Amino acid sequence: MQALDGNTVFAGGGCVARRSVDGGRSFTAMAFAPIEASCRAQLTSLSFVTPTLGWLLLSDGTVFTTDDGGASFAQRTALPGTNASGGADMPDSVVFTSATTGTASTSAGLFRTTDAGASWRAVNATGGLELWFADADHGYAVGAARVLRSDDGGASWTPKDLGVAGVAYSSIRCAGTRLCVLTTADGGKLVRTTDGGDTPAEAITPSSAAVYAAAFASPTRIAALGARGTTVLSDDAGSTFAPVGGALGGTYTGVFAGANAGSAFAVGGNGGFAKTSDGGRAWTRGSVPTAAGLRAVSFPSATVGYALDGDGGLFRTANGGSSWKTLGTGSTARGGAAGAVRRDRADGRRQRPAAFERRRRDLLARARESRRAARVRRHRRGT
């Protein structure tokens, strides 16, 4: 899911992708697959740089681009080494920072394009990394025990030895381009660097409970959450952490910064949701109406936000998360699709999507042609 502003949001999963330009009140299909109920390759990642210009990366390495908000797609060059290009590597993610420049990660390494996906050049052979860009020039890629940094928009990547042994990095978030905090897969440590990894970093155990997610709520304040709702806060950019109040309850696996300074939002299992407006000093628990775990939230304004669950359900709040509305995105897919909701016609019959109807008409036309050809053959044989 990606929210560009208070009105424009993109969501997808499985064989479905959707776009809203009115704050989630309505959605239009971005039909990259002929039939949403099943597709040859599912959506792995999407990246938009404007409300109309974006790219989709599929699970076989296929890359699509659109310049009209998903009304139509053009296929670009598949990521090298993936199934779509004759290999077996698995694609992970794609991030575009301009109308022409993007970086993609696969199980075999990092690739970069400067021509909007018409070609891809291998820029690093380290696979299985999560990409995060602070701006168009400065990015990081982390995974397992590896940290890579780019200062030239992804053209080159430099390994950074943070000097912390026995950890597997799971995410990185920064205030600016050099002051960063990294989470670890086992939740045992947070790792802090003040110079982007140029010198050994500091490993911190912020809590006796596992901490899985951390983000900057301001340039000096970091909020981190984890198992059993453990909440810790740093007011000195990660040098020290202190517990905040009692545990929220539940396990939180992600923290996302809000649009306003000091605001942050945490997500977890069973629709678990919590928010802070003071940089993590106090948290308010809430919930999104889903039994699935939340994958991501995005708040383009102080009141309007979106949440995506693990089953592809999409939700919208207009009051800062106090209540949520399930969004009917028009999807006919089942499971793993954004907002897997079907809309019915006024007469009570199921409304089939346009792609389904086109496919059905095509199959019926082919069947009619086959029957006609059979009649002609029988006539010629005199039967």
Report what the structure shows.
The model is unreliable at 332-368 (pLDDT under 50). The longest helix has 28 residues, at 354-381. This protein has a four-stranded antiparallel beta sheet, with no helix packed on it. A four-stranded antiparallel beta sheet has the order 5-6-7-8, with no helix packed on it. With 383 residues, it is mostly beta strands. The chain has a domain at 206-287: Thrombin, subunit H (Beta Barrel). The protein has one helix at residues 354-381, and strands at 2-3, 9-13, 16-20, 28-29, 43-48, 54-58, 63-66, 74-76, 91-96, 102-106, 109-113, 121-124, 130-133, 139-143, 146-150, 158-159, 169-175, 179-184, 190-193, 202-204, 211-216, 222-226, 231-234, 242-243, 252-257, 264-268, 272-276, 284-287, 294-298, 305-309, 314-317, 325-326. A hairpin with a 2-residue loop joins strand 14 (139-143) and strand 15. The protein has one helix and 32 strands.
Topology, element by element:
Layout: E1 2-3, E2 9-13, E3 16-20, E4 28-29, E5 43-48, E6 54-58, E7 63-66, E8 74-76, E9 91-96, E10 102-106, E11 109-113, E12 121-124, E13 130-133, E14 139-143, E15 146-150, E16 158-159, E17 169-175, E18 179-184, E19 190-193, E20 202-204, E21 211-216, E22 222-226, E23 231-234, E24 242-243, E25 252-257, E26 264-268, E27 272-276, E28 284-287, E29 294-298, E30 305-309, E31 314-317, E32 325-326, H1 354-381
Antiparallel strand pairs: 1-2, 2-3, 3-4, 5-6, 6-7, 7-8, 9-10, 10-11, 11-12, 13-14, 14-15, 15-16, 17-18, 18-19, 19-20, 21-22, 22-23, 23-24, 25-26, 26-27, 27-28, 29-30, 30-31, 31-32
